[in-house]
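Quick one:
INPUT:
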């Protein structure tokens, strides 16, 4: 007896049945005769793995698209940080996270990696929504809404690590914000905490040229070199952005098996640059994909992010063979899950059933000659019809199964009014 059967699924041109039990893909074969509690017919649809959004700040969805035409530092210091100091609270984080998770489920994302504040509040929403997340408190040297000193930040992170270390939906992650907001002594304390819990680290690195130059002026080293010398880099280190890495840093990134999370849309909008991701891939560096927050993106669509990623590399390198279809889709799906040792991101027996079904039957999408190419270049995430996470249907034909979408819309309007008055 299966929990869910997807019939008529087109896997590489062959129509097949997919049998799911206990959250796992148990059978892939032309016809599944066994009974099932639930069945979805994928005839004439496109089926693919769900996405892993590997760098975001979900609660910031309440600040969607705020602050235009500014470089990163001005955007942070003049727009985002003042708004955050005014508004960020448990209630803000809850409302923003619910909004972001609803969008992620709607747009086919079933795992996300976050860095923010009040992550306990986020955790209960992630669990209720039925997806998975890597969550962690931002650690900074200056006072924030949750702590006033580096030690207090580390204590919050430690507490969170302890409380969620055995959770099935939450992976607690340590999040030193960046090399320019954490001193060397803070980073050494981060390493002690990491070693105590064998934890993952999620950090912003080399997002802008200016920040790289400043670090070099202060420490005489480039960011990856600097972090490596401190002892921060290993296969559980996840660095967001990584726009400006030199050849030596690329070699260190490969040697230490860190994952670099490419966030092309946010990097473009903030004028931070174009990360030479294809060069990193060819050098053997592990790459995943993230949207960053909606404040700088201005959406959470992994399908759009993936399309931008592929086209940027082709255009930037003047090489249409760079970032081919299968590689781009893998970076947006399997690579993200893999960074956390989660067996998902592919529709294969033994993998977690994190799956999306797209209904492309609309005048804007036809004709379709290559389904994978259409996922990457032509469809957008509004055509996702079904999102399944660990075998559970979370969204199907306009209906959210685990979230109260009317309440989320109502709360978002309330916050929009409040924030509008402060602009
Ligand atoms: Zn970020």
């Amino acid at each position: 007896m299966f929990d869910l059967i997807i019939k008529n699924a087109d896997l590489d041109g062959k129509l097949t049945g997919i049998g799911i039990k206990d959250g796992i893909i148990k059978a892939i074969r032309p016809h599944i005769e066994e009974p099932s509690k639930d069945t979805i017919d994928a005839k004439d649809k496109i089926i693919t793995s769900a996405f892993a959004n590997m760098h975001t700040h979900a609660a910031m969805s309440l600040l969607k698209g705020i602050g235009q035409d500014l470089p990163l530092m001005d955007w942070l210091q003049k727009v985002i940080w003042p708004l955050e100091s005014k508004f960020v609270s448990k209630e803000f984080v809850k409302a923003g996270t619910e909004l972001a998770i609803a969008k992620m489920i709607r747009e086919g994302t079933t795992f996300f990696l976050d860095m923010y504040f009040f992550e306990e509040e986020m955790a209960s929403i992630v669990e209720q929504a039925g997806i998975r997340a890597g969550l962690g408190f931002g650690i900074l040297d200056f006072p924030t809404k949750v702590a006033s000193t580096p030690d207090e930040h580390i204590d919050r992170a430690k507490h969170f690590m302890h409380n969620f270390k055995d959770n099935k939906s939450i992976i607690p992650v340590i999040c030193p914000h960046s090399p320019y907001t954490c001193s060397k002594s803070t980073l050494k304390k981060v390493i002690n905490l990491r070693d105590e819990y064998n934890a993952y680290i999620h950090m912003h690195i080399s997002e802008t040229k200016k920040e790289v130059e400043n670090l070099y002026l202060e420490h005489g080293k480039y960011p990856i070199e600097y972090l490596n010398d401190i002892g921060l880099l290993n296969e559980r280190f996840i660095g967001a952005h990584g726009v400006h890495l030199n050849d030596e840093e690329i070699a260190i990134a490969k040697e230490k098996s860190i994952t670099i999370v490419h966030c092309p849309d946010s990097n473009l909008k903030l004028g931070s640059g174009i990360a030479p991701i294809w060069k990193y891939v060819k050098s053997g560096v592990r790459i995943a994909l993230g949207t960053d927050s909606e404040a700088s993106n201005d959406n959470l669509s992994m399908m759009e992010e993936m399309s931008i990623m592929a086209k940027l590399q082709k255009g930037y390198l003047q090489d249409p063979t760079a970032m081919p279809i299968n590689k781009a889709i893998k970076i947006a799906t399997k690579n993200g899950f893999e960074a956390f040792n989660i067996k998902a991101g592919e529709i294969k027996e033994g993998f977690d059933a994190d799956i999306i079904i797209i209904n492309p039957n609309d005048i804007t999408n036809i004709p379709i000659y290559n389904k994978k190419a259409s996922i990457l270049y032509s469809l957008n995430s509004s055509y996702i019809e079904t999102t399944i996470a660990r075998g559970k249907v979370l969204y199907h034909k306009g209906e959210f199964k685990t979230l109260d979408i009317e309440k989320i819309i109502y709360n978002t309007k309330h916050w929009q009014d409040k924030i509008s008055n402060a602009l």
